[in-house]
Predict the 3D structure of the following.
Amino acid sequence: MPTKLIVDCSTGVTTEVELTAEEIAQREADAAAFAEAKAIEEAEAQAKLAEKEAIAAKLGLTPEELLKLLS
Amino acid sequence: MATTYEAIATVTVGSGGAANIEFTSIAADWTDLLLKLSGRTNKAQKQENIQLYFNTSNSNFSFKMLIGDGSAATSYGTTNSQVADVPAATMTANTFGNMEIYIPNYAGSNNKSFSVDSVDEGNQTTVYSYLTAGLWSQTAAITGIKIAPAGANNFVQYSTATLYGIKNS
């Protein structure tokens, strides 16, 4: 069973407690939501990159050459 | 001389690992908070994102991140409550990442902006440094901070977190 560390800042006492079934479910849900959002972000980044590469290709340049041109 | 920089609490992960680290019952005694983490997780990859929670919530966050990997710099925005990476299981053994989360005016009644800087550590070509601007769009005072590996993994033994309180005078 996974555990968590809780530090009570009012007392300075640290306790290690096992996650409850609800906390484990929430942890899994948070991880799934994170992975899904991350996948969307990466897909958007890839789409932007593909768009840039398409523009560069139209100009007969590599993306690196286009970047140098614009810098 | 007044004490303006005080270690409120520190915790080190034991041999069994830890799913998360929570600082609770944070008093409004300081002006700013600073959380320092030396961390590593057991995810079967080189890095793992760390998620941040204020008052048990990982909602209403937004971030602007600047990331360098030694050969290129990238920047992007996200509403995922990911603050940065730390090394994970396949990174160089026994290396830990450093992270600092600085939260000014944490007890005020405005939305909470904060900054994060972090670096991985690893004896390899690609490691990451992060500089992150964060916003938590909530007006409640921050009384609790939780950090957790984003993939439902565990912080490994010897990961250490220390929460500091900083006064402006």
